[in-house]
Amino acid sequence: GDSVTQTEGQVALSEEDFLTIHCNYSASGYPTLFWYVQYPGEGPQLLFRASRDKEKGSSRGFEATYDKGTTSFHLRKASVQESDSAVYYCALSRPTGGNNKLTFGQGTVLSVIP
Amino acid sequence: GALVYQYPRRTICKSGTSMRMECQAVGFQATSVAWYRQSPQKTFELIALSTVNSAIKYEQNFTQEKFPISHPNLSFSSMTVLNAYLEDRGLYLCGARGGANSDYTFGSGTRLLVI
Q1: Burial profile A68-93: b = 16 or more Cβ within 10 angstroms, e = fewer
Q2: Rounded Cα distance, B30 and B75, in Å
Q3: Which DSSP state fits A97?
Q4: Which run of H or E residues covers position B35?
Q5: Do A49 and B103 count as a contact with CB atoms less than 8 A apart?
Q6: pLDDT tens across A12-43, in order?
Q7: Across A2-6, average pLDDT
Q8: CA distance linking residue A89 with residue B64, whole number of Å
Q9: Cβ of B100 and A100 within 8 Å?
């Protein structure tokens, strides 16, 4: 079945550090890839998505590029802020039987120290 | 904008009893509703996907007998956890979307504690 793997379970950075969270997926065809962010006490919010090879998604300074060759969609941000502290989830969606089911990775807890 | 409300936010039930949670879509028509569970130390597991005018599709390890879902109209869905035990504790999330080309909007979840 479809799966999403995030390498880092936890990431601790200082403000203005560069962020990379690795995401690799396994799915046939061309799934749509997503990054979600979840703040304490809230549900996951969509950051952005990408649907085609080499397409770049971006929002709020975060970005990721769809790479079908390496089946990856790594999240990056050039300079993190304390307010970026949250849990980040990579996800994919692939139409199955007329429905689009979202499959999430394990999540990465980002802590940014001021 | 599109919003999804879930209630209650938190609930405690005794082992062996049942608990119903609700999901309300505001600002859009929820043609599809997905119910997820986030257990401690785990990611989101899809319980079932409900699409208007289609049968509710349950994922492996989840059954209608344990997690009956109702999706009676385009703004509301509910799910009951029947005969809850410790392994059912977690955050239950409802995600809704307006059509095949739109994204899911998630509620803040219902946190279930079982004692």
Answers
A1: eeebbbbbebeebeeebbbbbbbbbb
A2: 6
A3: T
A4: strand B32-38
A5: yes
A6: 999 999 999 999 999 988 899 999 999 998 99
A7: 95
A8: 28
A9: yes
